[in-house]
Sequence to fold (282 residues):
Amino acid sequence: MCGRHPARGTFDAMCGRHPARGTLDAMCGRYASSKSPDDLVEMFEVDRFDPADELPPDWNIAPTKQVYAVLERPVESGGAPTRQLRSVKWGLVPSWAKDPGMGAKMINARSETVHEKPAYRKAFAARRCLLPADGYFEWHTPETAPDGPKGGSRKQPYWIHAADGTEVAFAGLYEWWRDRGRAEDDPLAWLWTCTILTLDAEPELARIHPRMPLVLTRDKWDGWLDPAWTEPEEIRGLLVPPPAGFMTAHPVSTDVNNVRNNAPHLLDAIPPDEVTVDATLF
Fold:
């Protein structure tokens, strides 16, 4: 997981570490989703949405927050699959987990191995979802970055989004976890959680960070959500990144580093003289 734990009110200014230093390369755990439920219902052709699941616009989503997920499953036992918009917690908790705490470490799943990992393989076969997003944030740390506060390297945040400004859909998985300490009819007895699939970033975006969330183009939405697709090898055929140039990026204010900051201006491009490190990436 990126940096410090968001639930403790701190920030996760960069996820993982620079690959050239031989360390981690996970995607950074921060994105934005500001569309209304009505907009998402129309965009994803949703048949069911419970107003109790409504979330406020969020321009600085961090792990363990509630997020929107589009999924298909029966509303009632034995019924036909229904496309739903639900609120789920970001950070997947497998059904076999002893407690939900491990979800904070499972915000991303590598698309290359998700079909074989014990924590994800069942969900990959049967519980896939789309996570609507305006775009996501990533932090770039050049080898020559100047020292930052307290001796740390300065990191420049970038806002990465569809070049045409439209909403995107991250490929995700969802799970539910039973809290045995609650009664069966307790609304909180079942915890719904999710994770975002990642893959190697396209060359232009890899200049910022080597990994990126898997953005599924609209022609793959139906297949990804279809619960009748259960063969891992067939499903893996959908794990295809959008064409080069589909996503674009620009540097943004370091205000996004603090999860307490949550407003539309976090997505705005900043002038070159405010960029904390090398601004020649794009």
